[in-house]
Amino acid sequence: MRVAMFGYQTWGHRTLQALLDSDHEVVLVVTHPKSDHAYEKIWDDSVAELAEKNGVPVLLRNRPDDPELLDAVRESRPDILVANNWRTWLPPELFDLPPHGTLNVHDSLLPSYAGFSPIIWALINGEERVGVTAHRMNADLDAGDILVQRSVAVGPADTATDLFHRTVDLIAPIVRESLDLIASGRDAAQWQPQDRSRASFFHKRSAEDSRIDWSWPAERLERLVRAQSDPYPNAYTFHRGQRIRIVSAAVSEGRYGGTPGRIFIREGDGIVIVAGADAHSGRHPGLVIRRLRTDDGTEYAATDYFRTMGGYLTTRP
Q1: Are 11 and 168 spatial neighbours (Cβ–Cβ below 8 Å)?
Q2: 176 Cβ partners below 8 Å, 6+ apart?
Q3: Which residues form the Formyl transferase N-terminal domain (predicted)?
Q4: Is the pTM higher than 0.70?
Q5: Using CB atoms within 10 A of its CB, is residue 225 exposed (0-12), middle (13-18) or buried (19+)?
Q6: Dist. CA 183–CA 31, nearest whole Å
Q7: Is 103 exposed, middle or buried, given 0-12, 13-18 or 19+ CB atoms closer than 10 A?
Q8: Is-contact 54 99, C-beta < 8 A?
Q9: I need a surface site. Which of 9, 86, 133, 293 has the fewest CB within 10 A?
Q10: DSSP code per residue over 24-45
């Protein structure tokens, strides 16, 4: 089949490489210009460079509502569009243009976690599995019929970085399997409608979403720290008006009562911070901070940084 691809960052790069390694012909690539957004500078393998290296025509666009772009896609005569990590909505005159429509590859187990940063949100929420879904694009966000879906387990110590690497490795086999099924004919490709009653939608992450709220239970805060692992912008809090970023943390073994955010006691190799909306009850664990980083980039063991107990970590300076 003749394939035109819309994609960006490492997700798009893996998709394009899978297409180039397949028996299908890549006739056009559309990708975004480089961005200064913190999250878009992390996994930033260049789709444009890969396309150019392989002699594939490439267009840089922030948005797809461009008559020249529509003309270019039409003139490339694709049998199918494949999209992965295209950051804006595609209009129907594009996604319905080829005979086989558009196959979108999304890094969640749809219908859950449609939208942005699904792995980070799923880890914060304590999901047991994450994965990748190939589905037919329609007018609603990540809502089309599913063709192939694969998942991986979330371990108790997994970070978002760990899960990124495991899920991004699913892209190539999913793309190859999906296109081979579609090329084989209607009977081979079994499209499954999504259960829209189970759908959930998430927005892009920003600095505000990494701010620690000490009224959260320690278990959720520990997952937030793992979800904001390096190289992501770390979860952060404030100590004596200065921001500190939490690099490593754990749920305490003991139960600690008092006011959320209180710098309480040493436990093992870290310092316990009282946490939870009902921390006054003393029935719940706290968050053990093990390692932290100041805004100048210096990293500390929490036991070296917090030399005396008492005082509070706060949500704002």
Answers
A1: yes
A2: 18, 21, 22
A3: 1-169
A4: yes
A5: buried
A6: 25
A7: buried
A8: no
A9: 293
A10: SEEEEEEEPPP---GGGGTS--
